[in-house]
Design brief:
single chain, mainly alpha, Potassium Channel Kv1.1, Chain A, 3-stranded antiparallel β-sheet, 3-stranded mixed β-sheet, 29 helices, 8 strands, elongated, BTB domain-containing protein, SKP1/BTB/POZ_sf
Length: about 600
């Protein structure tokens, strides 16, 4: 037939991005280096046209958010399955012929099960299967991309009108073809590096890990080795790789390995990793304001988990919270929290969010704060719940009991332990101290260690306060416990702790004095307080001047407060405390002497009993 009439036909206008197929499907057009560069220029032109059509920055961002990535890459990675017996794959020649016979290869669609099919096979299946199965397949496909928190407004717009992001979808699909061509030709020059960097950045903005993750691996492991890259580019791409491991794959260990391998020294990225490691939602939100949009997109993978953790922290810690702080900590507005996160809290009039209402209780008499404070001053180290950590522990052995104590706690509060455990003594080599004398009791050593731990806290220790009504409350801490801990502070050269315990003893003496004075008619309370003073006094070592001064104050306040009648009736029960009775007698004699001098009383000389 003559070919003249065919020349008058209008030539078919083909999209340059769709006219070339995937190299993995048999199209070898992109195996030519010049074709690769021409194709990359076409991609850049199409992307610039897309940005021009979008207009401003916000419109471009909305287009990326509205992107339905299934239309870009409908062949997600699936596990390898062995083909059935008798299966013969199509030959390469047939595939090439099929691709060359079609002017523009169409993007294959993905069915509900995830397998890839051509448009022809889709039409055949539609003809043979009922309409109900096709409808259910569409619904399943939609459910697979809609997050559990519900579709966003931009996603709904993309589903209703897919043409909104068609240009961007074509660009991403074309970049995949170009990457396959570069990998097939093993090209690793400056052009291929820039093409990969552009592809990685664009894929990150589209939140398509199937595109940017293998591209990052190929760029860092192979292309950067074959062709040296600029340090700033390596740090940028490695930073994306590190954030992807931490935020999307939630593998902080790998993220820190990447940071170490590529020597990433970026304070902003370090702050992000630290916020993820500690679930620090405040630092997380501050970091989002300091990084680029590419890093921000990678951080969005961890937003849902951190937001859920933040809401749980608020629900367990607060009765109410300010609305601006809640929106800042979660990164969402109040309406989105109600709709997507199913928050059931109530919003008040003054931008106060009520998390839970305070339980109503009857107003009772207020407790004395001094009583609550005194109850927590001495705590037995053996009954405390201590968190296990990596601090160096030392062993203190006394009378068959062994205490494992943090070394820095002892050395910080005691000059004795600092010299013993850090010097050239045998205890420093053994990592422990054994006490063989009878002066130390395990119970009081445990109390001493408890005070040492409390003095090692970052919160300064508050001095005890006198009780308002000591006669109305039982004795929280026996005076002897304070005295024994004070003696250990003196022995182990702990001046700051000793000063604190001495203040506690003075408060206990004052509380006991006022309780004795106010309960003159209550013989039972008088007995308990007498025994408490007697036990504390007997434990003192009068050979030490500081302890002797404590004993003098103890006797003076006791004699001024005790009921004489109660002392006369109860003194016989304290015969096992002879030292205390002797010094109380001296205290009463001192009072009589003062009375004699003040009132000018004179002693009388009496005749013997029975003498007339």
């Amino acid at each position: 037939m003559p070919s003249g009439p065919w020349g008058r036909l209008k030539p078919v206008e083909q999209d340059p991005l769709q006219s070339i197929g995937l190299p993995s499907k048999g199209d070898d057009s992109l195996l030519n280096p010049k074709t690769q560069e021409w194709y990359y220029n076409q991609i850049i032109s199409r992307f610039l046209a897309f940005c021009t059509e979008a207009g401003d920055k916000d419109s471009i961002i909305r287009s990326f958010d509205a992107l339905d990535i299934r239309a870009v890459d409908p062949t997600p990675a699936t596990p390898y399955t062995r083909p059935p017996p008798g299966y013969r794959p199509p030959s390469t020649a047939t595939s090439a012929a099929a691709s060359s016979s079609t002017p523009a290869p169409e993007t294959p669609a993905t069915n509900a099960s995830g397998s890839s099919q051509t448009p022809g096979s889709d039409s055949a299946n539609a003809a043979t299967s009922p309409a109900s199965s096709a409808l259910s397949g569409t619904l399943k496909a939609l459910r697979s991309i809609i997050p559990s928190s519900g579709p966003s407004t931009s996603m709904l717009a993309a589903i209703e009108d897919p043409d909104n992001t068609k240009s961007l979808q074509d660009v991403l699909m074309a970049l995949r073809k170009l990457r396959e061509g570069l990998v097939a030709t093993k090209r690793a020059d400056l052009f291929s590096i820039q093409a990969y960097i552009f592809s990685i950045r664009l894929s990150i903005l589209a939140k398509h890990p199937e595109s940017y993750h293998p591209a990052i691996l190929h760029l860092l492991r192979y292309m950067a080795v074959w062709t040296p890259m600029v340090n700033s580019e390596i740090e940028e791409i490695a930073g994306y790789f590190m954030l992807d491991a931490a935020c999307r794959r939630r593998d902080l260990t790998e993220a820190y390995f990447i940071r170490q391998d590529f020597n990433i020294r970026n304070k902003k990225l370090d702050r992000i990793l630290k916020a993820l490691a500690h679930d620090d939602y405040v630092s997380w939100q501050f970091s989002k304001k300091q990084v680029s949009r590419h890093c921000l997109k990678l951080m969005e993978w961890a937003d849902d988990d951190l937001r859920l953790h933040t809401l749980k922290c608020f629900s367990r810690s607060y009765f109410n919270v300010d609305l601006p702080f809640l929106e800042f900590a979660t990164g969402r507005k109040w309406d989105e929290l109600k709709e997507k996160d199913k928050v059931g809290w109530e919003l008040g009039d003054e931008e106060k969010v009520t998390i839970r209402k305070k339980p109503r209780t009857r107003a009772g008499p207020k407790d004395d704060p001094a009583d609550e404070q005194s109850a927590g001053i001495l705590a037995d180290f053996r009954t405390s719940w201590l968190l296990k950590n990596d601090e160096q522990l030392v062993e203190l052995k006394v009378k068959g009991e062994t205490f494992q104590v943090a070394k820095n706690v002892l050395t910080k509060n005691s000059e004795y332990f600092e010299s013993c455990l850090n010097g050239r003594f045998a205890e420093a080599k053994k990592g422990g101290v054994e006490f063989n004398d009878e002066d130390i009791e395990p119970r009081y050593l445990a109390l001493y260690i408890g005070v040492a731990y409390s003095h090692s806290s970052i919160v300064p220790h508050a001095h005890p306060r006198p009780a308002q009504s000591p006669e109305a409350a039982p004795i929280k801490t026996p005076m002897r416990d304070y005295v024994e801990v004070y003696k250990l502070c003196d022995r182990f050269i702990s001046p700051s702790m000793g000063e604190f315990i001495a203040r506690c003893i003075d408060v206990a003496i004052g509380n006991g004095h006022r309780a004795l004075y106010r309960t003159e008619a209550d013989q039972g309370t008088q007995k308990l307080l007498m025994r408490d003073f007697a036990d504390g006094y007997e434990a003192l070592n009068m050979q030490h001047s500081s302890q002797a001064e404590l004993g003098d104050r103890m006797i003076t306040y006791f004699c001024e407060g005790v009921s004489y009648k109660a002392w006369i009736e109860t003194m016989e029960e304290l015969r096992d405390r002879p030292k205390f009775i002797g010094h109380v007698s001296r205290g009463f004699a001192t009072k009589l002497q003062e009375l004699q001098v003040g009132r000018k009383l004179k002693r009388k000389e009496w005749a013997g009993p029975g003498v007339a």
